[in-house]
Amino acid sequence: MKILIINNFNSENRLGGVEHYLYELIQYAEKNNSDYIFKWFGKENMKTNWVEKFYHKTITQEIIQEIESFQPDIIHCFSIGAPITPHFMKFAKSKGIPIVYSFRDYYYICPKNYMLNDKNEVLHKHESALECILHHQPKRNILFDTLLYSKQSYHKSIIKKHIDYFLTPSENLTQFVSIHFQKEGKTLANPILIEQNQNSKTEENYILFVGRLVPEKGALTLLKTFQNISKSFPNEQLWIVGDGNQSEELQDFAENNELKNVLFLGNKSREELQVIYANSKFSVVPSEYLEAYGNVILESLAFGKTVITSNLVGIKDEIEKNNVGLTYSYQNPKELEDKMIELITNSSLKSELENNIPNYLATKTFSKHFEDLVSVYEDLLIKNR
To answer: Rounded distance, CA 223 to CA 340, Å?
Structure first.
């Protein structure tokens, strides 16, 4: 079976979790199963004007040529919208090729993607264009937000018309997509994308944050919380791994408040990250927008390290159900502080959470994920005959 993967960015631009996942997916297929041949179509991290954001004619023609030459049995779309627009789908359907769409975030529910209104309330439905443009976060300006909504709505209508099946990593996102797209689909949770070492017994005095340094990831809230904690626990350290447009602001805050036990490490390779995870005390994921899943949580757990996460990550219910970490309300930094102190001081609780990790991760192997994924492909081909 031949599967054409279509994603905004190519394998040379592993900018985020989607690209890392696709790289691992293709590597796994090549090493373990020759019956499934994947080909990844994506572009470089390129700038586009607003006309191209609505319809990129050149790239659409490139994809059509790729479909004709590769002759896929299935097309599997991931993050598309710019620079890749969904107009190729009409051609694919004319050839009778089933299309699977993996929704990895809330963009095609709300183009602002945070799923928060200007009162910091989580959105439980999304119906009004005017409400979205004027009151959903983040807000730029009326013109930009109107164009963004128009683009998303236009692309959404094309996707809704042409896809055969959808996948999402969390039940909450699955419910939204089912309502908005009225298509058959299911939840297929993310697998572990980093080599596991659950037997890591080493532990240093640092708490870990891994992620993009942008406001919605909550690193500033974590810094302010850690500022309070360090007064009572001066030996504790906070290591921050990642980069982004908030990096300078975060470092200025740490310097201005004399937080000498906060280390900014920048971006790290997968190999370097493995060492950092293995020696950490626990990880904190203080997201302040509705995340579809939360891969860094799985990465921390892969090294036997428990986590504290806000209640906005898609994996929250799994964390609570399997008792492998702690959660807190994202608008309550005092609760975050209490949870962090609890893990610092309560070794028996920390051990209990860590002891539950292996059974939970047994359900997150790439082999199990791959088996579930290709069963979707096989079922679609049978229905399409």
So the answer is: 12
* Residue 200 banded pLDDT, cuts 50, 70, 90: low
Q: In this structure, are residues 336 and 308 in contact, taking their beta carbons and an 8 Å threshold? A: yes
Q: Can you point out the beta strands (E) in 191-312?
A: 206-210, 237-241, 262-266, 282-285, 307-310
- Identity (one letter) of the amino acid at 294? G
Whole-number percent of the chain with pLDDT over 70: 97
Determine the longest span between alpha carbons in the chain, in angstroms.
67
| CB-based contact 26:35 (threshold 8 Å) | no
How is residue 99 written in tokens?
A: 């299309």
Q: Please compute the mean of the pLDDT values over residues 323-329 and round it to a whole number.
A: 97
> With left for phi above 0 and alpha for psi between -120 and 50, is residue 313 left, alpha or beta?
beta
Beta bridge partners of 206: 237
| Whole-number Å distance between alpha carbons of 372 and 276 | 31
Determine the Cα–Cα distance for residues 57 and 86; give it in Å rounded to an integer: 10
Residue 324's closest CA among 343, 345, 299, 305? 305
Say whether 209 sits in a helix, a strand or coil: strand
Structure tokens at 98: 């089933």
| DSSP bridge pairs for 99 | 75
DSSP 8-state class, residue 217: G
Other Cβ atoms within 10 Å of 177 Cβ, number: 21
The model carries a pTM of 0.90
pLDDT single digits (tens) 268-302: 988 899 999 999 999 999 999 999 888 899 999 99
Q: State the burial class of residue 24 (Cβ atoms within 10 Å of its Cβ: 0-12, 13-18, 19+).
A: middle
H or E element, residue 64 = helix 57-70
